[in-house]
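Hi everyone, sorry if this is the wrong subforum. Our group has a chain we'd like a structural model of before ordering constructs, and none of us has done structure prediction before. Sequence below.
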Amino acid sequence: MYYREILQKIMDITDGISPDEFRKFIEIIINSPRIYVVGAGRSGMVTRAFAMRLVHLGRKVFVVGETVTAALRKGDTLLAVSSSGKTTLVVETARAAKSLKGRVVAITSDLNAPLATLADAIVLIPSKVRPREYPHYEVGELMGGRFMPLGTLFEISVLIFFEACVIELMNRLGVKEEQMKKIHANI
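Answer:
Right subforum, don't worry. Here is the predicted structure as tokens:
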């Protein structure tokens, strides 16, 4: 069974997230009039889960690509999630947000990727193994000598990062779970 190995690797990754980046991310969420989220595939699912929690916290949130997403305005924030930082949908959405005078926050594992270069703020999720350390692998995720497929460690680590943010936001905004339950979907 790989459970403990996976949990240990995720702890290693989340321990590597900068406390300064965490604090800055929280400040951006608190001070943003409206928040937009974008991610593709499983990163997109994790991102939408965070958007739901932000709604529960009383924030005004939109998921890019949904038919009910309002126009981004100057001062709004886009949370753009991509492990590679090269996902076309995410990068082009970040470019559009910048052109509209929005703030872009990149959650990525690559500081040199196009998404990171567009960002006003970055949260580095250090889930990637570099080829010079393991030349027989492409850039990817390695756990105990075994390869983790298709961004698994990034996605799980981002989910945990977002959940830690929810706890911090609850404390900073003074929101109790009972208040969140009142906003939770009921139909």
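For your construct planning: The CA atoms of residues 40 and 114 lie 16 Å apart. The chain has one domain: 18-178.
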